[in-house]
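Worked Example 4.2. Consider the chain below.
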Amino acid sequence: MRFAKLILLGLTAASIFLITGCQSSTAEDAKKNTPSQTIHTDETQSEPVTADTDISEADSEQSESDAADSVHLKSVYFGKLEDAKAKTEEMDANLDDNSTAAMKEFEGELFSIWDGLLNEIYGVLEEQLAPENMEALRVKQREWITFRDTKAKEGSLKYQGGSLASLEYVSLQTKLTMVRCFDLVAQYMP
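Applying the procedure from the previous section yields the following structure tokens:
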């Protein structure tokens, strides 16, 4: 079980880094290929400001600062997720008691860690995203919770009636929640 978790964690991390790399190059390519668009910065302004218009030094510095904050926030949360992943792997490696009760307790602790991070990330996204983007994410998050719980239930059915059913349920919830944390940071965090 530990070996399978390590493989799953490794594959998850590799896929996240691959997704993040692809998104970064896609965003850079999109910026290069974006035509000049009209941007209204002030309702009282008589003429629209376009992307080709010179920006004052103060505005430029503010934009660079905002971009740096966004990159910093994303990297901070990727760091938190990597730390949590290392902590949970260490906890797994140090698990001495392989009784079902101890394993249930252990999986409950892991789920608490990842669910806490998921809620923290979601809270940051509520502050960072535009209201319409947050509403779209709220809908997707509700769908994801239903997906997670359904997959956990399906996985636990192989132990239906046995003491391992609830262990498998929480274990699958934890794994899916960990992946969702990485996905939210990669896809939505500015």
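The longest strand covers residues 38-39. Strands lie at 38-39, 49-50. Compare this with Example 4.1 before moving on.
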